[in-house]
Amino acid sequence: MYSSSQFFKWVVLIIISLITLSIPTVDSDPRVTAAGSVICGTGRATTASFIPTFVQAMEQLSSNLNNSKNNFAISNITNPPSPPFLALIQCHQDLPRTDCLVCYAVSRTAVPGCLPRTAGRVFLDGCFVRFDNYSFFHEAVDDVTDARNCSSSLGTGEDYKGGVLEFGKSVGGLVGNLSELALNSSEKGNGGFGVMEMNGVFGLAQCWESLSNEECRICLNKAKDEIVKCLPSKEGRSMNAGCFMRYSTQKFYEQNSQSDGGNSAISSPGAKVAVVLAAVAFLMISSFAGYAAYVRISRLKEEKKNMGLLSSSFNKSGLKYKYETLEKSTNYFDISNKLGQGGAGSVYKGTLPNGDVVAVKRLFFNTRQWVDEFFNEVNLISAIEHKNLIKLLACSIEGPESLLVYEFVPNKSLDHFLFDKDKAQILSWKQRMVVILGTAEGLAYLHGGCHVRIIHRDIKSSNILLDKDFSPKIADFGLVRTFGADRSHLTTGIAGTLGYMAPEYIVRGQLTEKADVFSFGVVVLEIVCGKRNNAFVEDSGGSLLQTVWKLYKEGVVSEAVDPLLKGNFSEQEALEVLQIGLLCTQASAALRPSMPEVIEFLTTKGGDKQIPVPHQPPFLNARALMSQGGLLSSSTSSPMTKMGMSYTTTSQSSTTPSSEWPLKIDESSSC
Cβ distance 38 to 111 under 8 Å? Predict the structure, then answer.
């Protein structure tokens, strides 16, 4: 007997077979190649309703596009007190309707790559999609995000009849006439579109339907000024906030549809095919919708069961708190109580009814999407107890959003004292040594002192919090990985923070406790030197590891120590600690000490324990990693794997490599 999923697969296969048998082959090009990079905004969502609103807007945009006659649609959703959510889709008017829908479908796979940022833009060669939290429909140009994309350098005159100079004249004349053609189309109410060929060069210009005639003129003027800067490339694109322009030596646009949005007489073969495709698409969508409803109901039943188990577990453990209690403790998440924000959520200071001060982490995403992982992570963290590890006190899972409650650490994070320009307090050498030793003891406990071996994977200065006595507490356990006694390594998705990640992990995905040791070594050097490891900052002049190694080899290690200490430190102790930091950051994981060995190095006095001489550490930088196959592609992290707490967000998170289109989203980087 077939399962429901097997039955559904057969339905889809039958529908596809019918399409293949009944529809003649049609040459079509929806032009879904990327015209430029996906552009994401800098703002981040602060409400749990953002993702559902995004989905609603994309569905509304799809519906409006289906009902549109000019390959253009907008969406405007306002749900106070949440910020407004606006979206736009513009297909180039030469695209037939079916190709436009295909182009939009492909662009929709790319825009989620910007989440949870509140703005994103995707330029494909056939369409443009944008979402933002303000009304941008009349925005013609944007000096920050407007771009051009040039390819295929012409090289010599042999590549084009008449030579490079004549080619340049042809392109200049083409884009000038093309701009006027599109503007005339806009003034006639035909959408600001035009295509043209001149001396073997083909061009297309498109203003968005939402622009006025004057706004279209402004956008096209900038586009033509920018696109000629691509010369002598064979192809160029100008991508502005309100328009798109392209030239090429190859014809790329549709021949018979220039300003009618791709609509043609219903008797044409293309229209007949479109009607059949629309009918089949409706049947497939209906089937998908029915199956999706069935799956959703099944999942809701399963999740309800899981939530019951989770709730029961929390009740027994004493971890469960009412949402209303935690909400009130933060004065309803008043901005004045906000301690910091990361990729997973915001952290607020709260005062419980019994007077205890706590830190409440307000997660962006609903637990319905990740109840099993939430259950495992909370169980793991709640079972960990060490003086140098942040303590999870409680959580709430039954309100409109999930909340995690941690012990409150008044002095915020280590990076606040090391890197802030306006340092309110300078950590003394003694305090720095306490932080280094305490962090080492906390890591040693994770690696072998508790009931399960744990690799933190995101040790950095912003994840080390300082209590009232400036003792360290390791926080942010959202990237932890656990291992049995017989597990020595794991190849997994890369996650962590650039500048702190071990080379064998970031390049090969090899994960052991020595990855945490490497990160710890970087933190040690930062604490002693008072400088951030800037290996992944362009034009930074080299990493902190490189600087310390150079001074170490020259025998002037004291010059690396934070000058704000003004010489109030033991030079011998500073030498030993920097040597330990270099030893922990060795390129070979086998040469790095274990955390218990590090503690022994730090606590043994009088030369009883010889610290090994380190070799040169790896001087990783962004360009070197890019040469390894694009390991540093940009994407966002999923808060669904982040359970820890961090008061500051000062470091760039790493990602899993992705060089394919549509863009993939990494779900494993730091808060």
Answer: yes
The candidate with the shortest Cα–Cα distance to 376, out of 447, 455, 304, 310, is: 310
pLDDT in tens, 73-97: 999 988 776 788 999 999 999 999 8
On the question of a cis peptide bond just before residue 612, with omega within 30 degrees of 0, the verdict is: no
Strands 127-132, 345-351: pairing is unpaired
| pTM tops 0.90, yes or no | no
* Cα separation, 515 vs 483, whole angstroms: 14
Which H/E stretch holds residue 303? helix 269-317
Q: Measured between alpha carbons, how far is 585 from 533 in angstroms, rounded to an integer?
A: 12
For 463: left if phi > 0, alpha if psi spans -120 to 50, otherwise beta; the answer is: alpha
In the block, which residue shows the tokens 């070979």? 588
Is the link from the previous residue into 410 a cis peptide, with omega within 30 of 0? no
Predicted confidence band of residue 51 (pLDDT cuts 50, 70, 90): confident
458 catalytic? Reply is yes
Report the SS3 class of residue 42: coil
Cα–Cα dist 361/390, whole Å: 13
Say if CB 476 and CB 645 are below 8 A apart: yes
Alpha helix ranges (H) inside 188-268: 213-227
Taking residues 587-607, what's their average pLDDT? 90
| Core vs surface per residue 267-296: b (16+ CB within 10 A) or e | eeebbebbeebeebbeeeeeeeeebeeeee
User: Phi and psi for 91 in degrees, rounded to 5?
Assistant: -90, 150
- H or E segment and range at residue 54: helix 50-66
Task: Determine contact, residues 7/83, Cβ cutoff 8 Å.
Answer: no
Read off the pLDDT of residues 161-218 as tens digits, 9 standing for 90 and up: 567 888 889 999 999 999 999 999 888 887 899 999 999 899 999 999 999 999 999 9
Lookup: tokens for 526? 């930062």
Residue 330 exposure: Cα atoms within 13 Å on the Cβ side: 25
Domains of the chain with bracketed CATH: 144-263 (3.30.430.20), 299-407 (3.30.200.20)
Distance CA 590, CA 149 (A): 46
Who wins on pLDDT, 617 or 640? 617
Residue of 99, 458, 476, 562 with catalytic role = 458
Helix 513-529 × helix 595-603 angle, to 10°: 30
Largest interatomic CA distance in the chain: 95
The tokens for 80 are 């106070």
Q: From CA 492, how far away is CA 533, in angstroms rounded? A: 25
Which amino acid does the sequence have at 300?
Answer: L
